[in-house]
Every structure is written in structure tokens, then in C-alpha cells.
Amino acid sequence: MEPLTVAWTSHDRYFALVMENFARIKALKKEHDEFVSSLKEKEVSDYDVDILASKNDEIGQLAIIVVVFSALTLEAYINHYGITRLSKNYFSNYLDKLDLVAKWIIIPKVVIGKQLDPGSMAMKDLIWLVTRRNKLVHYKSKKVDVKNIQSSDFLWYEDAARAVQAIKRVTHDLTSIDSEAEMDWLVNI
């Protein structure tokens, strides 16, 4: 009798964390935008500024989760795709050490003989996501003149939205070349 086996992977759990936290970001952004609109006809107080700063800070913290877990989602999924479509041994010996962008281009080429377009918007989003993830997980402390702090030094709603968009575009591009790619874990996207 054959032992009962199941795929043991985490991409679906990572994706659920992405979507839960992105939903929280969208709700906070709505509150933020409504509060900003309410300030149009009045003088802005220090208390008002504190409320906005608090909402922006919470959005930024949640965006860290969305960005990092979006990258984790895509890495866990492409690893799962490679292992289930090839073999654990082949994947470990020849594909595992590739960087994330290379995995998304090379693994489908090995599996089905077709690759994702390296110049596509999906790949540009993936490169952006990997760069943002790396800045977060390999962070280096530094001293910065307060006058030189830029809005790009923080994560915003738009960063979280782009991270979610990266998942959507990359997985869509994979299913456009491989109709057998399992995507039942992609819900609410």
C-alpha cells in the first residue's frame, strides 16, 4: 500500500497574510483620506497631525508585512511549482540556489519549455518587489540628516498595492503559458 502524501508548502498561508494585512491597509487608508477631507475647512491642529502620522505609521508597518510576505509567497510558490513538476532532487541540485527572479524565468522553461518574458511588467514588478524586500530584510542602519529624509524612505499604501499586484501579474503570466499551474490558492485578488 502506497503511503498517503500531501504537498507541504506555505505559499497559501503567506498569501493569506498578505491579503489580510492589505485589507487592513485599505481600511486605514480610507480612514486617513476621510480624515484629510474633514480637515479642508478647518485649521489643522497638532492633534490632527498626530492622528495622520499615527495612521501613516500603521500603514507603513502593515506594508512591511505585505511586501515581505508577497516576496515569500512568490518564492514559496515557484519552489513548490518546480518541485512538484520536476522532482525535489532535480530542484535541489539545479534550481534551488537561483535568485527569485531567475527562478520565475528558468523554472517554467525547464518544466514546459516556455519562459516568462523577462521584460514584462510582471517581471519589472517582481524585480521591484525583490529590491524592496531585500532593503527590508537586509537593512543597514545609517545616520541621516533630517532634511534628507524622503517619502521613499518609508513604505506606503502604494507599495503594498504594488506588492499585491506583483503576485497577481507574475502568477497570471505563469498561467498564460502553463494552464496546469495550480492557482487555487489565489483568492480575493
Describe this structure in words.
- The chain starts with 10 loop residues before the first helix and ends in a 12-residue tail after the last helix.
- The mean pLDDT is 93.
- The chain has one domain (11-139, 151-177).
- Helix content is 67%, strand content 0%.
- The protein has helices spanning 11-38, 46-85, 88-95, 100-112, 121-137, 157-177.
- The chain contains six helices and no strands.
- With 189 residues, it is mostly helical.
End-to-end Cα distance: 40 Å
Succession of helices and strands = HHHHHH
Proportion of β residues?
Answer: under 5%
Supply the helix-strand structural class. Answer: mainly alpha
Q: List the uncertain runs.
A: none
Q: Quickly count the helices.
A: 6
Binned, the helix content reads 55-70%
Q: Which overall shape is indicated by the principal axes computed on the Cα atoms?
A: elongated
Largest sheet: none
Radius of gyration over alpha carbons? 20 Å
Quantity of strands, as a count = 0
- Summed up, the domain count is 1
Compute the average pLDDT: 93
Keywords:
single chain, 189 residues, mainly alpha, 6 helices, 0% strand, elongated
Short structural description:
With 189 residues, the protein is an all-alpha fold.
Would you spell out the secondary-structure blueprint of this structure?
Layout: H1 11-38, H2 46-85, H3 88-95, H4 100-112, H5 121-137, H6 157-177
